[in-house]
Amino acid sequence: MFFHRSLVCLTQTKTAKNLNPFKAGFTFGNPDIIRASPASQPNTMSKPNALFILGPTASGKTAAALALAHDLPIEIISIDSALVFKGMDIGTAKPSAEELAVAPHHLIDIIEPTAAYSAAQFAEDATRLIAEIDARGRIPVLVGGTMLYVKSLLEPLSKLPQGDVEFRAHIDQRASQIGWPALHEELARIDAITAARLYPNDAQRISRALEIFHLSGRPMSQLIAEQNDAPPELPFTPHLTALIPEPRAMLHERINARFIKMLADGFLDEMHALRARGDLDASMTAMRCVGYRQAWAHLDGLCSYAELVEKGQAATRQLAKRQLTWLRSSPNVHAFGDSASLIEFLKHAVKPTN
Fold it and tell me: β-pairing, 74-79 with 105-106?
C-alpha cells in the first residue's frame, strides 16, 4: 500500500537544476516536518503562496477547505473539470449555496455544458486568479481532483498551441462515427509515445494530442520533451497536500453512498432537464463526466435503474483509483488521512517567519 493509515512520515529529497514542485521530495502527513520538502518551504521570494488540497473523489476535500476558511482569509479555486459546467449541480456534487457563502469560489459554473474547457485554459485562469487573490491580501486555496489540471498548472507547457474549437468539433464528429479506439490508433501512428500512455477511450487527451499535431505539425511528446529541458519558473509557491481516507474500503463506501444520495436528491430530474435543452448529446465532454454518461445511457433505455446505480458507482470508484494512482506518482504531495492534520499543515505553511 502507498498510503498507510498511520501515515508514517517519510522524506526523500532530490536535487535538480530546475526543481519541479510536483516531482521532487516525498512526505507523508506530519506538520512538524514541513520544512523537509522544497515545495513546502515558507515563501521567501515574494511570490504568492498557493495552497493545494487534492485527493480522490468523495474524500472530503471541500469540507476541509471550508474548515480552513474559518482560520485563514482564503478564496477557493476549484480544480474540477465537471464543476465548470452550468446546470450540472447534483451529479457533480457541486458545493451548496451555504458552502459557497463560506468563502469566495472560482472556476465553478463558468461555461455551458455545450462548451469545452481545456487543462491549458485552467492553468491560465488559475495562474491569473492566484495573483489576483494574493493582491487582495487573501490566500488562494486550490481544491479538487482533476489531476490533469494540476499537472498543467505546475508543469506549464507554453510551447503547446492553444485549442482549436472547430478542429475539436471535427474530432468529436469522427469519434462518433469510428470510435475513440480508432482515433487512438491514428494517434499511435503520429505520436507513439503519447498514445502508449493513453487509454483507447481517453477522449479528452486523445483529442488534445491530435489537435496539437494538427496545429503544430509536431508530436505532443516531442514538444513536452523540449519543454522539460527548460521548465519555466512558477509565479507562485505551491504547498501540495492530499486528503486520502484509509482504509480504501471506507472511501468506496463514501462513493457508493454519495451516488445513491445524488439519485435521491434528483440527479435524474437534472438529467431530464439537460436533455430537454436539445443541444446536448452523449458524445459531448460534459455528458461524458462520470455519472452523467451512465445516467444518459439509462434514460436512453440502455440500462436499468439497478444497472445505472451499479455502473455509476463502479465508474466513480475507477475515477478515484486513477486519482490515487496520479497522486502516488507525485511524491511531493503531503498526504493526510484526516482533515485536521492537513489543515494544521497548511496553516503552518503560510505562517509568517521572523
Answer: parallel
13 is in an annotated binding site: no
Q: Looking at the whole model, is its pTM more than 0.85?
A: no
CA dihedral 154, 161, 146, 190 (to 10 degrees): -110
137: burial class by Cβ within 10 Å (0-12, 13-18, 19+)?
Answer: exposed
Structure letter (DSSP) for residue 77: E
Strongest mean pLDDT among 73-82, 218-227, 280-289, 331-340: 73-82
Cell numbers for 158, please give them. Answer: 507554453
What Rg value do the Cα atoms of the chain yield, rounded?
A: 20
Q: Which domains does the chain have, with CATH numbers?
A: 31-156+235-247+325-349 (3.40.50.300), 165-228 (1.10.20.140), 250-320 (1.10.287.890)
Contact call for residues 323 and 219 (beta carbons, < 8 A): no
242-272 pLDDT per residue, tens: 999 989 999 999 999 999 999 999 999 999 9
62 is in an annotated binding site: yes
Residue 278 known to bind ligand: no
Q: Which residue has the cell 514541513?
A: 34
60 is in an annotated binding site: yes
**Per-residue pLDDT, 163:** 77
Give percent of the chain with pLDDT exceeding 70. Answer: 85
264 is known to lie in a ligand binding site = no
Residue 59 among known ligand-binding residues: yes
Asked if residue 140 has a cis previous peptide bond (ω within 30° of 0), the answer is: no
Helix (H) or strand (E) holding 74: strand 74-79
